[in-house]
Amino acid sequence: MTRPCREWVNASIRRIEMERMRSAETHLLRIDLPALPGLTLYLKDETTHLTGSLKHRLARSLFLYALCNDRIGPNSTLVEASSGSTAVSEAYFARLLGLRFVAVMPRTTTTEKQAEIVANGGEIHLVDDPGAIYATARRLADETGGCYLDQFTFAERAVDWRCDNIADSIFSQMAAEEHRVPTWLVCGAGTGGTSATIGRYVRHRGLPTRLCLADPLESVYHRHMADPRIRIWPNGRSVIEGIGRPQVEASFVPELIDRTIAVPDAASIAAARVLSQFLGRRCGGSTGTNLWASLAILKEMAAAGEKGSLVTILCDSGDRYRSTLFDDGWLAEQGLSCAGYMAQLEQLLAPTPATARTGRNDAAYGRPVSELAATLAQGR
């Protein structure tokens, strides 16, 4: 590959840095839990990024990493293997630099995500076997003489874990709270980049906060944590897009994780739906996985008489899953039932004046759960 013009690289980096400066920091939502006195849940709301998800941070870092390593030039075709959200964000940054972008994704990726990629100027290449996305992306990059961005390899090294990252933002925002140093941080892992960033940050700052991996039941990661010899779980097919993998990715750093909680898909979907009712706007399935694991830890803390805070991540909007996780017909086709899990969650996230003041959407407050659920299902 011909080395790109240094002037073009410098201009491209400046363009991305200008985008970063224009982007406001994402919100930290406080959720008081009357059923668990002395404990507070916080949601780092990454949906407010310009491309609507946590992956906006990763895409920016991957582009800067590739530019600073002379992997991208003014005529490069950029290719990525993705379940959707990273590709949405990368399509945005590719358009910012005037470059062609191709997303290689499983055919099961939601049509809503596919539409967002196209709306951001990207192209889509679907494959039937989810495990084939890596080789296909690499092949397409080779055939075009382009750059395979390879989030699953470069995520943990492209993000600066010492500063200017999601962990830095969380702890800065928590500084004025009652329990300013959270007892736990909970996140999922797709590439493993976010968990690596958080784990390294808390060690670098000498913080006592512990890190929990919330992992879909059909993912390999919690199995690998229990037995490092397990690196592939070929039969695992979780419907929770964006987290959980059939193989241990290069960016996953298990040594930085203090515990794991495996979450059934039905529980993740139930949690996404209940939180959506609570906030008055849809939340995605990976957020549901995070919430289920977070509430499990908070209930343990309550039983032990502990007080404190826990922070987890609101990863992306549930509008990207209208045709799947929020469609009762689709759930029935998958053989998934959420009713029992939803009943458990609604006891902890019951509507109260306190929760309305500390994180709920005012428009949703006071409306019956059944009415709000119907409204969300109809897309209003």
Regarding CATH, which class of the largest domain?
Alpha Beta
Percent helix range: 40-55%
- Count every helix, treating DSSP H or I runs of 4 or more residues as helices: 15
The number of distinct β-strands equals 10
Q: In sequence order, what are the helices and strands, one letter per element? A: HEEHEHEHEHEHHEHEHEHHEHHHH
Q: What is the level-2 CATH architecture name of the largest domain?
A: 3-Layer(aba) Sandwich
Q: Which structural class best describes the helix and strand composition?
A: alpha/beta
- Mean pLDDT reading: 91
Instruction: Give the termini separation.
Output: 49 Å
Entry keywords:
380 residues, alpha/beta, Rossmann fold, 2 domains, six-stranded mixed beta sheet, four-stranded parallel beta sheet, 10 strands, disordered C terminus
